[in-house]
């Protein structure tokens, strides 16, 4: 498996100096980065050439649903040029009552992405874990969508917060997972209590080993809250390397 970093960790630094921040991230020794909505106002072909120059692969590309519903969106140009493993969205709503509309939207995006020669994946937070007709809304969304056109990019911390055991979840959806967000927390119910991998209560080692068993392509470290994203990334990457996956 390849080890990636979610660029949302560095959103402040990227806003100040996009290229310079990518150069510093490359020095951390990860295999690649997952882009999070922002592409530095750099044209797709130019951004692809720049990341290649830095030795960074693309671990994923995240966009809005509206962008991906547009068959001619520049989002697809970015994804193709970067050789993205998937184009991804997330959503926030009343999932207990609105999961069907999210499933319908995911189905449409999956078809558009396939028409563009790409794969679509859905990234969860914790709200999708609420029960909908007796089962987690995330399960309902997966049941209602084409498994070949709608994949999953699970966030294991938010699954844990929602009461879903992440190792079992990964095993259950093994055929629909290419990328996994590794996030740890001392108190998952508090968004401000995120920590470096291995320092919290999320079963990160179990998740990594489960990811290997299902043939996942990318383990992507994400830590939304940290005073020093570079230091936190270094600690987290070292933790993953010590697992000797």
Instruction: Estimate the global geometry from the Cα principal axes.
Output: globular
CATH fold-level label of the domain at 154-245: TIM Barrel
Q: Major β-sheet, in short?
A: 8 strands, parallel
Helical coverage, percent range: 40-55%
The CATH architecture of the domain at 154-245 is Alpha-Beta Barrel
How would you describe what is shown here?
By secondary structure, this protein is of the alpha/beta class. The chain has a domain at 154-245: Divalent-metal-dependent TIM barrel enzymes (TIM Barrel). Helix content is 43%, strand content 17%. It has helices spanning 11-16, 18-26, 44-54, 65-69, 74-82, 95-115, 137-143, 156-161, 166-172, 204-214, 229-242, and strands spanning 2-6, 32-36, 57-62, 87-89, 120-123, 131-132, 135-136, 151-153, 179-182, 184-185, 194-195, 218-221. An eight-stranded parallel β-sheet has the order 8-5-4-3-2-1-12-9. A hairpin with an 8-residue loop joins β10 (184-185) and β11. It is globular and about 50 Å long. The model has no long low-confidence stretch (mean pLDDT 97).
Which features would summarize this protein structure in a list?
245 residues; alpha/beta; TIM Barrel; eight-stranded parallel sheet; two-stranded antiparallel sheet; 11 helices; 12 strands
Blueprint of the fold:
Blueprint: E1 2-6, H1 11-16, H2 18-26, E2 32-36, H3 44-54, E3 57-62, H4 65-69, H5 74-82, E4 87-89, H6 95-115, E5 120-123, E6 131-132, E7 135-136, H7 137-143, E8 151-153, H8 156-161, H9 166-172, E9 179-182, E10 184-185, E11 194-195, H10 204-214, E12 218-221, H11 229-242
Parallel strand pairs: 1-2, 1-12, 2-3, 3-4, 4-5, 5-8, 9-12
Antiparallel strand pairs: 6-7, 10-11
Helix pairs in contact: 3-5, 6-7, 9-10
